Target: Amino acid/amide ABC transporter substrate-binding protein (HAAT family)
Amino acid sequence: MFTNTIKKIVRAGLLVSLGLSFCYSAYAQQEIKIGVIYPLSGAAASSGSEMKNALELAADIVNNGAKTVPNLPFSAGGGLPNLKGAKIKLVFADHQGNPQIGATETERLITQEKVVAIVGAYFSNVTATSSQVAEKYKIPYVNPESSSSTLTQRGFKWFFRTTAHDDLFVHNFFDFFKELEAKKGIKVKQLATFNENTLWGNETTKLETKLAAEKGYNLVKTIVYPAKSTQLTSEVQQLKSANPQVVMQSSYLGDAIMSMKTYKELGFSPEMILANNAGFTDTEFRRTLGKDADYVITREVWSPDLAKNNPLIKQVNDLYNSKYKADFTGNSSRTFTGLMTLVDAINRAASTEPEAIRKALVETNIPANKLIMPWKGIKFDEHGQNVLGSGILVQIIDGKYNTVWPFDLATKDVVWPMPKWDQRK
Model:
């Protein structure tokens, strides 16, 4: 009898154990782990923080809903409907702006955290190494912001980029110059390039040099400076001596701020600084420089003043602002869109199997009215490049970004030339 009692206790304990195991398993299935890798420390930590906020907002909308944006996908909340309400769990990694750390952290996310997909990584050179690891492990990789053209020229099967790329953005610069002359009577001929020397900046320099020659512009100076420089005095002196009308510049946040301070210090005042996004669109750029940030024109992919054409822009930006006391930027709005695109694919796949997610990404076709971006939609070509993305140009006036090109979308007339430093109020 004693033996039978022991057997019953053991059997009961086993059932309880199995029950707990089953409950844990069922709970575990309610979370879909997505790895996200961004610069959360180092010189671009401010940019990384804004993009982290955007990711958390997107996940919160999917998991818990957002009644104020009923037309946004997943705004009803409750998780992914095709996966029985499974919730998104973001697993963050910090690449610190270092390509090698990006690669090792991506491997950790895949092999130890067991994420089903990766979103990242802002820096093009980090995205290059990070996505290579994902390709090796056959894990879907969605890249919302990196614009280096070669990222989608590597023959990868698991890499998908939602943003447009630098080939298109640099063409936009020269389209702008042409229309500036035709519609505003402003003629630009003397150009200079001032770009950092990682993958993004080097590729941009090649594109700008090529197009300047093809389109008949005089490139009076080409400067490629070391990324994360501690001073830019000699480089700016070279620019000043070359006397360009327009400086086309590609810099991350720290370099963008430093260059503007050096321009003022040395009295360098070209007709225009035409920036290639990145540091020039970070909230910290305007916060640090104040009025000295005014009049810069930068290429962009998003601006709050475009809400007149798309109510979703204001509705989602208001959510972001209420939570983080700041507006979306071109970076964070793209990051938000990248995660929402991945979630859409996982839901359509009705699976967390990597191949099923990859196949759903290939079949993605999100219409413009479901996006907060001023794009025609999201649809990937055979290289994983969204073919429906586009760019705009914005100018900082009174501390705010205003769309100035394309001219039919402009909310303010372009101010040209930039006032000289000693003529500013």
Notes: The domain at 28-164+307-378 is CATH 3.40.50.2300 (Rossmann fold). The chain is about 45% helix and 15% strand.
